[in-house]
Automatic annotation (TrEMBL):
Residue ranges of the region described as Disordered: 1-23, 56-101
Protein's name according to its UniProt entry: ATP-binding protein
Lineage, highest ranks first: Bacteria, Bacillati, Cyanobacteriota, Cyanophyceae, Nostocales
Basic and acidic residues composition bias: residue spans: 1-10
Keyword Repeat assigned: yes
The species this protein was found in: Nostoc flagelliforme FACHB-838
UniProt-listed Pfam families: AAA_16, TPR_12
Amino acid sequence: MTNKSSEENPHPITNEQGAFDNVNARDISVGGDITQESNTTNNNNTNNITITITTSSLSPQQDNETEQSFAQKDQQNYQVTSSSTKKTIPPNNLNTHPSNLDEDYFVGREAILEELKQALENKNNVFITGRSGVGKSELARQYAQKHRALYPGGIWYIDALKKDIFRDLEQGYRKILKEDISAPDDEIDKKLNFYCDRWNNQSSEERVLIILDHFTEKDYNYLKPYLSNNEKLFKVLVITLDGDWTGIKSKTLNVLEQTASIKFLSLYQEDEVKNNGQIAEQICNHLENLPLVLEYVANSLMPTYDIKKICEQIKNINIIFSNDEKINSIFELDWQHLNTETKIFSCLLSLASFTPIPVALGEALAEKFDVTEWGTLSSKEMRKVLPILVKRYMIKKIPGNTHQFHPIVQYFLRYKLVELNKDRDILDLIQREFPELSQDVNVLIKKMEQLFCQVIAEEARKSKILPNPTQNDLEEFKYFIPHIIRVVTDMEPNLEDEDLVDLFTCLGRHYQDNGHYTEAINQYKECLKIIKERLGEQHPYIFKIQNALAYIYLLSEEYEKAESPYTEALEGGKRWLEENPDSSQYRETELNFAISKDYLGYLYLCLYLRHKFCNENEAKLFLNKAELLLKEAEKLFAEEKPNAEYQDDIPRNLDHLAMFHRLQKQWNKAEEFYKKALEIREGQQKEHPILAESYHNSATNYFDWAIFYSSTKENEDNEKAKQNYKKAEELYLKALEIKKKFYGKKNIKVAKTLDQLAKTYEGLCEDDKAIEKYKEALDIRKTIWDKHLDVAENMKNLADCYLYKENYEYSYEYAKDWFRQALDLMESIEKSKDWKRLIQKIYDELDYLRESDINAESLFKRASNLLGSSLDSSSLSKRF
């Protein structure tokens, strides 16, 4: 492992266990998108039947591995080493994709439901196809709801319209596996292979159902290599509009029988249908017994009109269903009755992604209509539109304070958007409110697209892209992300330069804060590419994105990769500032220039930690570079009070300067800087996770100070050591309380502070408390990661704690068990420099343990074999 600093930043970076330890930097688990087609293999298709269907997702469960129990030896003193959580409720995300119909209204499909059940009993892949509006997705949801007991392992729904099928499958695997863990690799294809292999090899007998909705043959071939081939337990239901796939036999879902159609209408107006049977038949015939339009008519028209009036309205519209594009004609029934405001606003909403639309986004779009630009289309009128659309069954409310169109309705509205020039009311509006457009509807469409992009950018700027979001912030904003992706992907030319940068920054920070570093890197690289095409090689926006990109590399502890963009931002920023002293962007660019210096200085502190144990002279060069950069940044930050986005630059810089002094054992100087940083943050934020960072950093200074007094003979002072350990304990506990409140109990930032708190208790000889905190940290890490070096190190720390625990009869037994678990994990982790450092530590501890416990000899030999070639022959001979 690399040397980790236990320093914390407003942007969390690396960890150091103490100024005197060889400490380890984590191999961070990240995510990534597949940017090119995956290689697919021609699997045997004999187990495939086709039927087309939609489904929903699962909910997470955790089931951590349990340690070997020594209860028979010491029942009273035994502490569970790794909590086990039983999976009680199967994960199922159908609540986020609920059925449109109650079970009682789902008629005429009894036979196909049973057929589908039998097909999935016999085959692992079933495909359903059928025309638009025939009810394929609803059939899937009803089946999953009716037969959810057949899938105790869970049900997971993936919608190809979201265009994120790989990430959705990864999330599904995490939910349906007994342990909610993250794959160690950062590339999405490797992560999916990891989860697929894990599922194939697990001993569970719980069957799961995966529903793939709106999939094309290309989508399916992309995902197919990552779907488990366990025919008995892993069932896949695929819904597609086009069932003519190579080597695939699909089941076609047909329209309802007329008797079922009439029964369906009677559920809404029983007496009307019963008393007007022939008219009901005419309606069903004209609608070709297509479930979607029957449902739409029942919900939208029948509450308002009698059945005779409905029949008359339908006959006056030339509905042709032989071409599925013509299904949109049924929505003309409502379109004709919408006022101009509703028509325009509905088309504006249709520009959104095919995902839930946050109410806040709808309100923000409505607010954008004002009397100066849109004439009579005021925000007050726009706010009435959503309730109208809900009432007319064109959009529905779903969980999460969101609305969602049926995809067919959304397609219809997008079609109407480009056909606005055929609507007399719209043309009159253009002539009245925008005479300069000369009834050019394309200009109006352009204005609407620009408005949509502006609103998305403004919502992103509302504190959503500021550093250190809480879990609540991330949860609230997650529904905006697909719409941001839609804008930067499909409407990028409509974005102003500033909006483009802010949206990519928002996406980058979203992926960063969720631990998906590869995706964050991809977003920043794409942004750099577009901005350079627009503005050339030298522009403040470029320096800002270079800083953001370098920071992700810093988080990933890829220091060499981080150094390059920081240096480029510094050089470019310096040149630009010299050439543009009067620019309105001067101060912001100067702040970004200072950020480059500050973080590059911090990066050199990290490189000092990494190299100081192997090359002290080389490491000191990094320390000297860090000092110069940090002090230069300090001067730049102090020149003017930063705005909200940069408000933590000064305290963060003070933290970095404090760390510089701490690494040189200048404890009082470090304490002074940490206190200044904390005072500034307490003045800015009464209650915020950023305060936890300051408490944690100050605690680390006292912790290292205590080690200094307890481990160096010339300065030994046990009383001062104890005082500093107690100060560290107090501050770590404060940090822990805040982090748990804002991030939840299962967060890696919480684990980090628990780790340091455990080390503090070790220094205070309070071994039981130390063990308790190490175990809490381990449970968190095993929830987030599986085969990860930090998990193995956590186990090694527990082993050490038992190894040196005094007056405890079975301490060696527990120590051996934790060493055994750590070695088991080390054998399955890729060997790196960090890996070698950790195995060396385990080797040394077991060398000590075997002198007191002969039963540790086998573990020592395992560690020796793993260490292998990482030790030279002379060092090996010395140890033996």
